[in-house]
Amino acid sequence: MDVKDFKIQWFPGHMTKARRMMEGQLRLVDVVVELLDARIPGSSINPMLRQMAGNKPRVIALNKMDMADPVKTEAWLLKLKQGGVPVCSIDCHTGKGVKQMISLVKEAARPITEKWLKKGVKNRDVRLMIVGVPNVGKSTLINRLAGQVKAIASDRPGVTKQKQWVNIARGLQLLDTPGVLWPKFEDPETGLHLALTGAVKDDIYDRRDALVLLLQEMLKKYPQQLAMFYHITLEPEDTAETVMEKIGAARGCVKAGGVLDMNKVEQMVLYEFKTAKMGRFTLDEPI
């Protein structure tokens, strides 16, 4: 199967509302933290968010580093740094790299804070917004930053009554935003990678096609890891379909009469990839 045949578009109405809300609130923000999925750093870049952020100081954080190929993560960090934006890798669940991210945010805000000091403004908090596609880990990061207290700052002018600033560190306040995708994926591979990592609801694309394309990528990039995890032997002539059969047999995915249950294989493999039970993999190449 060719990835060009995998077409997916998903832009629910609530995302249109979220986009409009973000456009209105970005003027209140000093720094934007762009959260990317370390498994798909290129595919999880939202061009619409970058356009909305304009010239705001920005920090890029590759989340889920514990689920991604560490060698490729380092290569992606180098590539993204070439764009002139501070970048780091983090793991929201353990907190690894989060302190570095906060330091980068404060450094990015330095020109702004120095300008305030020159004007005699002291003790004004730096306000930031964390943006990213759905399921990239925003909520987990925000909860970790806010800590147990989750102190809510007073409302700021221009902020709706439903939105409040969260104190996340001394001198830093955060405004939460929903995960937002963009109306059209120009590259079908982008849509595939977003689907495989959970940014897109799995009931709006063909899961069998997604699995076939995933296994095709795994056979090219990580054949040894695939074979070891499922305890199967791969041959040069193997295709995604024959690998599915081998996995089904190895895992005992059998229906009555000894027929392989391919639906069970499909559900199992996609889940084990998405949750990193299969191992640490990066689909996007840092080229």
UniProtKB/TrEMBL annotation:
UniProt record similarity statement: Belongs to the TRAFAC class YlqF/YawG GTPase family. MTG1 subfamily.
CDD domains cross-referenced by the UniProt entry: Ras_like_GTPase (cd00882), YlqF (cd01856)
Keyword GTP-binding recorded: yes
Domain CP-type G intervals: 15-183
The name this protein goes by in its record: Ribosome biogenesis GTPase A
Main location: cytoplasm
Species: Succiniclasticum ruminis DSM 9236
InterPro entries: G_CP_dom, GTP-bd, GTP-bd_ortho_bundle_sf, GTP-bd_ribosome_bgen, GTPase_MTG1, P-loop_NTPase
Segments crossing the lipid bilayer: none
Record keywords: Cytoplasm, GTP-binding, Nucleotide-binding
The protein's role, per its UniProt record: Required for a late step of 50S ribosomal subunit assembly. Has GTPase activity.
